[in-house]
Structures are given as structure tokens and as C-alpha cells.
Specification:
The chain is an alpha+beta fold. The chain folds into 4 domains: 177 residues, no CATH class; 59 residues, no CATH class; 222 residues, no CATH class; 113 residues. 19% of the residues lie in helices and 36% in strands. The chain is built from 9 helices and 32 strands. The strands form 6 sheets. Strands 15, 16, 21, 22, 23, 24, 25, 28, 30 and 31 form a 10-stranded mixed beta sheet that branches. Strands 1, 2, 4, 14, 17, 19 and 20 form a 7-stranded mixed beta sheet that branches. β15 and β16 form a beta hairpin. The longest helix has 47 residues. The chain starts with 52 loop residues before the first strand and ends in a 6-residue tail after the last helix.
């Protein structure tokens, strides 16, 4: 079916009949990321020679948010800022006036509408109206049907016709207008006029438009004869334009002008938050072989993903993460009201509109007229943003027979005390400002230097464990006044590239041990490893006896350095912080991994044997059911345990031993009861077998029953003794809680 032209004398664009309207499949754009926000004029083409308010400053944040500032002189009338439709909400949410005196009177913009609302306004079918659940295409037929009832001007080959569009019928709904003779099959004789009379023809069908003209004529026009259709109702034109903005393929990117109203000729400055590419950092570390220093260079990768060339724009980089969120603000919102029906049901259609009382009466039987009422209410859909709260995470612990941990009651040492001082921050965010304004073409990227400063850096050979290959590493200290953002780190030394690694976020005065390669010149092997446990004190916690002890380590290492220069060797110590280490040249602590490092200075091309004496403060929980007398006696005999606690442990061992003896006695009594029950049963069987009974058997049976009673009393007495002794040794251990 040929497509007409929708002409609008006031519109600058026409859809010509020679170009069939292609139905555009609407895409639903999903907001991705936590901070999709506005890029006002910076996201759309804004010619530099026509921009009275130019971009002057851009500040990028680590969360993909940018802050943009524009400044200039207010022109006559209003200042138009082109805004992508998808970003209109954020424009209203973040736009701030920075002009002296705040001379902006207000903002004006075309309202945004949802896709469903746009279809409803334009009279187009909504999603799911055809039962498919998918959004239908916007085609020629649907556009024509959306004009039903509207005042239109139809352009035909015979001229123009004005009126109101009554109905649009497809070919399958229209009446056949004439008979078209079927083409004869190949090789058959040509068709003749008699073929029509013989019925060898088909009915021709066309789409039809019914129009009520200004002269009250009902005209029927074939759609194939239409050249153009122009709605003369200005309101409909606006509604159709809104629908196409919301439903088009690039509707979210379509520029929506925000008009800024202010006093002409006065200076104006506007700031706003905008969606922007995340700026990323990358570092270079140039080592100085002759000194424990290095030059740290920081580079920032930024992107101008807008349609506007940046001219002399001041660029700032913020090492921080301010919160930003999406919020529906621009589109109109409507509240739903309750539908209430009148007590007396009234119809919206007159009863005698197309019938008579007689006809109504004849339609019912003797039962008379039936009355019924139908009420329909409106439905709605609401969308909102819920802000969840973070749940707390509970931690709990118990003690088993083999559970080890650092002792809090026994202070041996603190390896973390050798860690560097905490980084200092004067504010929640740090700012790096480019020293000179930046020129950057639209949709271009740049790598800009933001840091070049000397820092403390020491080359080391790093061992994660004895016997493993050494890693080339550098012990770096952030001597700058700024927090270094996380980024890649390329290391240069000895006149060339040495390796690369990742640098974690580092605050001022914080230190990082960065590993960047393999060191083949240094080896470290373990020569011996001995450990001895010395109990120090005991506590009673959560029905467990907790042993606090010192584990003494004697570790030996063989270090070989094949290099022609002296080397500093770092060895990771797999011990907790409550540890004292002797024998190393010094101790370092890596906050990033939470581990201490033994440092050995090794001469050039030499071997070195080193010994470490390590005292580690530990704790171990012993469940009460796992304790025995032998273990408690060993604890009570330990000379390193305080005398008062040794006495307590001895009393607990005595109580536990008494309980165990009573339990053994109970077992013997229960065995005797079992044996006696068998004897009594045999005596009863023998007595039943002897006629007239036997005095001897009777006496023996009575004696056995008396003995059974005595055993029952003894068993009860012993069970009470077990219970009292069990309580006594537990109570004795419970007094250890006061010795924490």
C-alpha cells in the first residue's frame, strides 16, 4: 500500500510519498551503572561561534560522574541548552546557578512522557493491545487510524479535501469495487470481454478512508489515491511529535532544549552534574640506583565523549566517590483516585437511541425487564526507587580441641607496631588540577600528567616463603600530600624498563611493597625449623578451657646472593601480630597483606646464614569433654604458669579424677547388678522345678534379693558422687575467668 505524505505547513520536514514510512522498532533503553547523569550542552553539538555560554571547567570523579561549569554573557531572549532526552531528569536535579546575585528567573523545557503515555496521547496502539505482549510498530495504517476523528487536509491527485477522518479500512475490510479479469495461464488464449461475464475474474480491493467533509458529505477515498495527509489540529501535531520523540530509535538521544531565562547582557554561570567516562590513572616510577629515592609520575586518562570541542577548558580530577543516583523528575506524574459509582446506576447511552419501547418489551419474556449495571474502574502502574539498607553480619566463635588464634591475654610483641603511620586526609576527596587549560576535540581522549614528585623507594628481593623464587620488588612510600588513586605502575631502572604491577590506593605517608618481576640472583632456603610450646596462663570462656601459651620458634635460613651488588631481602613471616622476632636486621610490616617481613641485608656475591628466634603469643581452646586428668596434670605442673593457676588446675584435676573413679565404681556396681539378676533368675527357675519347694533355694533367693537392694543403694550413692565431683572440677575451672 503506498504511503501518503504527512504534511504540516508549519513544519520544516515532510515525509514524501515516494519514501515509504519504515516502521521503527522501539528500543527500551536500560539505565546502567549507579550514576547515569546529565551532560547538558556538552553532550550535543553546540557550535563554538554560536555558544554565548561556553564550557569553562570540568571536574571528573572516580564514579563516572562529572561536574561541568559554563560561563558567559546572557543573550537576548533566552539561552537554549540542548539536552539529550534521557538526561533531562538529571538536568533538573543538579543544575545550579553560580552567577552573582542569581539572576536566572527559571528554566523551561518540553515535558517528557513515557512510551505508554506517548502512545495514548497520539492514539496509537499500546504494548500488548494485539495480544502479543510486544510493542507494535508505528506504520502507515496505525498513523492513519490515530487520526480518526481529527480534522485533516487530504491531498489527492484531484486536489485537496478538508474534513474530519471518520474511519480507516484495510483492504480486507473494504468492499470490492470492480472485477479484474484473471490473467490467462501461460500458453492459453488471450482474455476476452466475455471472460468477465463467465466469472473468470476476481474482485479488486483497496484500503479506504472515510471522510466527513466541511459540506457534511461522506466521501470514500482509496488510500492508493492519497498523496498527503495533514492534521489541521495543532494539538494533535504536538501529541504526535511527543509520541515520536519517545518511541523513535534515537529518542533517548534526541536533543531537548532547556531554555534558561535571565536578564540579557549580564554575566551568567551554570554548574551541573553529568554522566562522564571514568577517569583512570597510570603511574611511572623511575628508580635512582645510587639513592633510596625515585620519581613518581602520575598520568590521567580522560575522555571527551561529547559532540563539543573543548577550548581552553580547565580540567580537574577528583580522587573521591560522591554519591549520585537516577531519579525520575522531568516527566509529569499523576496520582490515582478512587472510583466511586453513584448509588443510582445511570447509563451513558440513551435507552431509545436506536430502538423503541415496543421493541424493548418484545425482547423479554413474561419475567419482565431485567436490569443490570456494569462499573469499570481505571488501573494504574507506578514505578519507584527503593533504597535498601545494609544488613549487619554477625560473627561468632567457639573453641575446639585444635582451634588456634592470637592470645589477647598474653602480650608477647606487636609486629604491626613496625608498620608505617596511617595516611592522612584533610578532606573526603583529593583534587588534582591540570596546570594549564585543555583543548580536546569531541569524541577524543587524552593522557594528561597530574603528578611528578620524588618519593622514597627501595629495591628489595621479596620471598613469599623459603625455597620459592625471589621476586623483584620496590618498597614505596607516598611522600606526596595527596592520595594516590589505584592504577597501573610501570617501573624503570638501570636505563630501561624493569617491570610493571598494580598500585593500590595509597594515602599520604602510607607504604606499599610492589612486586614487578622475578629476581634470579638471590636464593633463600630453610635450614631448620623447631617449635616448642610453653603454657603461660589459662582462662575459662564459653564452657572451654583456653590455654594461652608462647610458641618458641628457632628458624634458620641460608641466603645466597650472586649479584655484584649488595641486596636487601624481604621474607614474609607467617605469624600473627602478637609476635616478637629477634635475629633480623629489622622488621617491616605490609599493611596491604597484613603480614610482617623479616629484612636481611646481604653483601655482594656472598652467602649468609641467619637465625631467627621467634616468640609467638597464641591461644588454644579445649572443650571440657576433651579434657582428661593427664592433660590437666601437665598444665598444673608447667613452671611457666602462675602458682595460683597451677593450684586451681590441680584441684580441677583432683575433681576430675574423683569423678572418673566414681564413674568406674558405678560401672562395677552395674556389672554386679547384671550378674546378680542372672543368678536370681536361675534360682527362681530351680525353685519352680522342685516339688513342694526347697528351704535352701528360698533362703538363697531371699539373700540375693537383699544383695540386689544393697547394690541399688550403692549405685545411687555413686551416681550422686559422680555428679558432685563433676560439678566441683568445672567450678574450679570457672574461677580461671578472673585471671584474664
Amino acid at each position: 500500500m503506498p504511503s501518503p505524505r504527512f504534511a504540516d505547513r508549519s513544519a520544516p520536514v515532510l515525509v514524501r510519498a515516494s519514501s515509504p514510512a519504515r516502521p521503527a522498532r522501539a528500543r527500551r533503553l536500560l539505565a546502567s551503572g549507579a550514576t547515569a547523569v546529565l551532560v547538558l550542552a556538552s553532550t550535543q553539538a553546540l557550535a563554538q561561534d554560536r555558544a554565548p555560554v561556553s564550557l569553562s571547567r570540568v571536574r571528573f570523579y572516580e564514579t563516572g560522574v562529572g561536574y561541568f561549569e559554563r560561563a558567559g554573557t546572557m543573550p537576548q531572549g533566552s539561552l537554549a541548552l540542548p539536552v539529550p532526552a534521557a538526561h533531562l531528569d538529571d538536568a533538573l536535579k543538579t543544575l545550579v546557578v553560580l552567577s552573582p546575585g542569581g539572576n536566572v528567573a527559571g528554566l523551561e523545557f518540553a515535558s517528557s512522557v513515557s512510551r505508554d503515555m506517548a502512545r495514548a496521547l497520539a492514539g496509537l496502539a499500546g504494548a500488548g493491545d494485539d495480544g502479543s505482549g510486544t510493542e507494535p510498530h508505528i506504520g502507515y495504517d496505525s498513523l492513519l487510524r490515530s487520526l480518526k476523528g481529527a480534522a485533516v487536509e487530504l491531498g489527492t491527485a484531484q486536489g485537496k479535501l478538508e474534513g474530519r477522518l471518520v474511519e480507516v479500512l484495510g483492504p480486507e475490510e473494504s468492499e470490492a469495487e470492480r472485477c479484474v479479469v484473471r490473467a490467462p495461464p501461460p500458453g492459453a488464449a488471450p482474455a476476452t470481454p466475455d471472460d468477465a461475464a463467465a466469472g473468470r475474474c476476481v474482485a479488486e480491493r483497496h484500503g479506504t478512508v472515510l471522510v466527513l467533509t466541511k459540506d457534511s458529505e461522506i466521501r470514500r477515498i482509496r488510500t492508493s489515491d492519497l498523496v498527503s495527509v495533514r492534521p489541521t489540529d495543532a494539538g494533535f501535531k504536538t501529541r504526535l511529535g511527543s509520541a515520536l520523540d519517545a518511541l523513535g530509535e534515537g529518542g533517548a538521544k534526541t536533543a531537548r532544549a532547556i531554555s534558561v531565562h535571565a536578564d540579557a547582557g549580564k554575566p551568567i554561570a551554570l554548574g551541573y552534574v553529568a554522566e562522564a567516562p571514568v577517569w583512570r590513572s597510570t603511574f611511572r616510577l623511575v628508580l635512582d640506583k645510587s639513592a633510596p629515592t625515585a620519581v613518581l609520575q602520575g598520568w590521567a586518562l580522560i575522555h571527551n565523549d561529547t559532540d563539543e570541542d573543548w577550548k581552553q577548558v580547565k580540567v580537574e580530577l577528583v580522587n573521591g566517590q560522591p554519591d549520585s543516583f537516577l531519579f525520575p523528575l522531568a516527566a509529569p506524574r499523576y496520582a490515582r483516585r478512587e472510583l466511586r459509582t453513584p448509588e443510582r446506576e445511570l447509563s451513558t447511552v440513551p435507552q431509545l437511541l436506536d430502538t423503541t419501547v415496543d421493541n424493548m418489551w418484545s425482547g423479554f419474556g413474561a419475567g419482565g425487564l431485567g436490569l443490570s449495571g456494569i462499573g469499570e474502574g481505571g488501573g494504574g502502574r507506578g514505578e519507584g526507587i527503593g533504597l535498601g539498607s545494609f544488613g549487619t553480619i554477625g560473627h561468632g566463635s567457639g573453641y575446639g580441641s585444635a582451634r588456634l588464634g592470637e592470645s589477647s591475654a598474653l602480650q608477647v610483641g606487636n609486629l604491626a607496631a613496625t608498620a608505617q603511620a596511617e595516611g592522612e586526609e584533610a578532606a573526603a576527596m583529593f583534587l588534582y588540577a591540570m596546570p594549564t587549560p585543555v583543548d580536546l576535540h569531541a569524541h577524543s581522549s587524552a593522557l594528561l600528567p597530574f603528578l611528578s614528585q620524588g618519593v622514597s623507594a627501595r629495591r628489595v628481593a621479596y620471598f613469599a616463603a623459603p625455597g620459592q623464587p625471589a621476586e623483584s620488588a620496590v618498597h614505596l612510600r607516598n611522600d606526596t600530600a595527596q592520595t594516590l588513586p589505584a592504577g597501573t605502575l610501570a617501573i624503570f631502572g638501570d636505563g630501561g624498563f624493569a617491570g610493571e604491577a598494580g598500585l593500590a590506593r595509597t594515602k599520604p605517608r602510607e607504604e606499599r611493597i610492589v612486586r614487578y618481576g622475578i629476581d634470579l640472583d638471590v636464593e633463600l632456603e630453610s635450614s631448620r625449623s623447631l617449635a616448642t610450646d610453653l603454657p603461660q596462663l589459662f582462662t575459662f570462656e564459653k564452657d572451654s578451657l583456653v590455654e594461652h601459651f608462647v610458641r618458641m620458634h628457632a628458624d634458620g635460613y641460608e641466603i645466597r646472593n650472586r649479584s655484584s651488588s649488595a641486596r636487601t631481602v624481604y621474607l614474609t613471616l607467617r605469624y600473627g601480630r602478637n609476635t616478637d622476632v629477634q635475629g633480623a636486621d629489622r622488621i617491616e610490616f605490609d599493611e596491604e597483606s597484613g603480614q610482617a617481613l623479616a629484612v636481611f641485608e646481604v653483601g655482594a656475591q656472598g652467602d649468609s646464614a641467619r637465625e631467627l628466634e621467634i616468640r609467638e603469643g597464641l591461644r588454644q581452646g579445649h572443650a571440657l569433654d576433651s579434657l582428661d586428668v593427664k592433660l590437666l596434670r601437665s598444665f598444673a605442673a608447667a613452671p611457666t604458669v602462675p602458682a595460683e593457676q597451677r593450684a586451681t588446675l590441680g584441684r580441677a584435676a583432683d575433681g576430675l579424677e574423683a569423678r572418673d573413679r566414681a564413674r568406674a565404681d558405678v560401672g562395677e556396681v552395674e556389672q554386679a547388678v547384671t550378674d546378680l539378676e542372672r543368678d536370681i533368675e536361675r534360682l527362681r527357675q530351680s525353685a519352680r522345678a522342685v516339688e513342694g519347694g526347697s528351704d535352701e533355694l528360698a533362703e538363697r533367693l531371699v539373700a540375693a534379693e537383699d544383695q540386689m537392694g544393697e547394690l541399688a543403694r550403692r549405685r545411687k550413692e555413686l551416681l550422686g558422687l559422680v555428679q558432685s565431683n563433676d560439678k566441683a572440677w568445672r567450678v574450679a575451672l570457672g574461677t580461671l575467668a578472673a585471671h584474664r
